[in-house]
């Protein structure tokens, strides 16, 4: 089967992308508007894209009514955000924050999320997250259909001590980190079934 993008709807293209490019890591993004109101929402069109400087990318689709989501609005307004990675204990609260809610609803309070102040940016980080990345806006690319891709430069990495297997050399205990990933629809994945292939020299 073959689909030419010029002959399919945006909804079909979204389905093809989101059901085949998986598992996807989840950025549980905390951001703030210029009034200092905080927001949290999950985004799985997300990944690390470079290390000098360290950068992450997040892809935002518009809401069904064509309006922009609060997270990209906040980032474009204040140029700061925090990517909080998600493990299984955080999944239910993450899901609460995925509801389409008016901009003035505080999802952090609604989902009973505890926060910690960030060091270099105003949006707080989530206490329960095993890894939080404080980011400042690096660049953005608006898409013709109303979406937006935003690249953030990571200023600070916060890691729960339990995920540090050793400091010198730095090794992360991925079983302790245990991130969940987005599959398709409401399905999620765990990293409990791993295998190893050693790369040739
Ligand atoms: C696991 C998960 C991943 C999501 N990934 C994305 C995404 O990559 N891009 C997007 O636009 N919406 C994504 N959503 C939907 C947003 O989280 C949802 O629209 C949310 O209400 C946006 O909140 P905000 O307006 O406060 O930013 C995802 C939802 C879930 C549950």
The CATH architecture term is Roll
Name the poorly predicted regions: none
Q: Give the helix/strand class.
A: alpha+beta
Bound molecules: flavin mononucleotide
Number of helices: 5
List the domain count as a whole number: 1
Helix content: 10-25%
Largest sheet: 7 strands, antiparallel
Distance between the termini: 37 Å
Structural descriptors:
201 residues; alpha+beta; Pnp Oxidase, Chain A; 5 helices; 14 strands; binds flavin mononucleotide
Describe this structure in words.
The chain has 201 residues and is α+β, with helices and mostly antiparallel strands. The protein has one domain (17-189): Roll (Pnp Oxidase, Chain A), CATH 2.30.110.10. Helix content is 17%, strand content 36%. It has five helices and 14 strands. The chain has helices at 10-20, 70-78, 91-96, 107-110, 174-177, and strands spanning 24-25, 27-32, 38-43, 46-51, 54-60, 80-85, 115-116, 125-126, 131-142, 148-159, 164-167, 170-172, 181-182, 188-189. The strands form four sheets. A seven-stranded antiparallel β-sheet has the order 3-2-6-9-10-5-4, covered by helices on one side. It has a three-stranded antiparallel β-sheet with strand order 1-13-14, with no helix packed on it. It is globular. Bound molecules: flavin mononucleotide.
